[in-house]
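During the reporting period the student researcher (J.K.) took over the structure-prediction task from the postdoctoral fellow and processed the backlog of single-chain submissions. One of the processed entries is reproduced below for the supervisory committee.
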Amino acid sequence: MQAIRSILVVIEPEHSESLALKRAKLIAGVTGAHLHLLVCDKKHEHSALLSLLKAGLQEDGYGVTTEQAWNDSLHDTIIEVQQAEGCGLVIKQHFPDSPLKKALLTPADWKLLRYCPAAVLLVKTATPWAGGVILAAIDVGNSDEDHRTLHNAIIDHGFDIAHLAKAQLHVISAHPSPMLSAADPTFQLRETIEARYREQCRAFQAEFDVDDKHLHIEEGPADVLIPHLAHTLRAAVTIIGTVGRTGITGALIGNTAEVVLDALESDVLVLKPQTLMDHLEELATQP
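J.K. obtained the following structure tokens:
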């Protein structure tokens, strides 16, 4: 989070109280990041609103640029501007789609999560981050290089946000139910599964000072457990990773990030493995 030098803030002109801009100001106030305000609209002119916002932010000491653009779709427009401006973080307010619309069309925010080659913060609530709880969700059952790097990034961002908001960092990892038929005896008993998962958490616990009270190893599906714990802890932000499935598989199955998006009552920060970010960046720059 500290390394982010430029933040893309998606402004919704019809919503006068911009929650995305509030979060951007909080982060930029600590990191010194530049803010690039974007209105995605091809029908109406919003230069007056952008000028007003820019003047107010500059008066408060922020570095700001503004833009109005449109390129085929909302997520395409955001990604094109993110690439052009070199923004390391995109902040957008999330407005849930109706169940019918979601059944017929892939929500724009899902597409943004899948294709954006940068971290995405979807703001869902006006709940202050200060003094609250930051929940980092990881999958320590996947220990390949991509997942290990992603876990470190998730906890690193959680630690940064907890530090800037003077909040508590909690970490959750879901584990599978015991299977008597499992080849590895570890996965035949709940206690041995949990012990294995806790052991795999020791390194980051030591690095980020996460004690056992703030580490939650739970049995069950991640898309159920994460929203449940976030609700129980009244988390202000939940940080999750996505492997960015695309195509028909992604449409039918969905990533945990997408499935839990509407279920979570907190803001949601979504990160991707670096290899996937590099691949998406290549796709985004293709003509």
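The committee noted the following: Residues 49 and 183 are 62 Å apart (CA to CA).
J.K. will present the remaining backlog at the next meeting.
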